[in-house]
From TrEMBL:
<dbReference type="GO" id="GO:0003700">
    <property type="term" value="F:DNA-binding transcription factor activity"/>
</dbReference>
<protein>
    <recommendedName>
        <fullName>HTH arsR-type domain-containing protein</fullName>
    </recommendedName>
</protein>
<feature type="domain" description="HTH arsR-type">
    <location>
        <begin position="1"/>
        <end position="89"/>
    </location>
</feature>
<dbReference type="InterPro" id="IPR001845">
    <property type="entry name" value="HTH_ArsR_DNA-bd_dom"/>
</dbReference>
<keyword id="KW-0238">DNA-binding</keyword>
<dbReference type="Pfam" id="PF01022">
    <property type="entry name" value="HTH_5"/>
</dbReference>
<dbReference type="GO" id="GO:0003677">
    <property type="term" value="F:DNA binding"/>
</dbReference>
<keyword id="KW-0804">Transcription</keyword>
<dbReference type="InterPro" id="IPR036390">
    <property type="entry name" value="WH_DNA-bd_sf"/>
</dbReference>
<dbReference type="InterPro" id="IPR051081">
    <property type="entry name" value="HTH_MetalResp_TranReg"/>
</dbReference>
<keyword id="KW-0805">Transcription regulation</keyword>
<dbReference type="InterPro" id="IPR047796">
    <property type="entry name" value="SdpR-like_repress"/>
</dbReference>
<dbReference type="InterPro" id="IPR036388">
    <property type="entry name" value="WH-like_DNA-bd_sf"/>
</dbReference>
<dbReference type="InterPro" id="IPR011991">
    <property type="entry name" value="ArsR-like_HTH"/>
</dbReference>
Length: 92
């Protein structure tokens, strides 16, 4: 996993909102854009970065591309964060 790309992707509030939407259901890029006051091109850019970070996957159905959240990347990030926690053997 490219931790730097993942953390950079979730640092942006628009991308976090996109992930919140995708947590509920799959959306096309146009349906995602309807939730924002942004151009279709800007939403596509955010989706591209989320895909590069492995946070979303796309699937084609007829003439549409739908986006889904990839929860396994979040599990990997949480596992890494947890491993950095205070699990030291405390003496004394």
């Amino acid at each position: 996993m490219a931790m730097t790309e993942t953390l950079k992707a979730i640092a942006d509030p628009v991308r976090r909102k996109i992930l919140e939407l995708l947590k509920q259901q799959s959306y096309s890029a146009g349906a995602i854009a309807d939730h924002f006051d942004l151009s279709q091109a800007t939403v596509s850019y955010h989706l591209k970065l989320l895909k590069q970070a492995g946070l979303v996957a796309e699937r084609r159905e007829k003439n549409f591309i739908y986006y889904d959240i990839n929860a396994s990347v979040f599990e990997d990030v949480l596992t890494w964060i947890y491993s950095m926690g205070g699990h030291r053997d405390e003496k004394g």
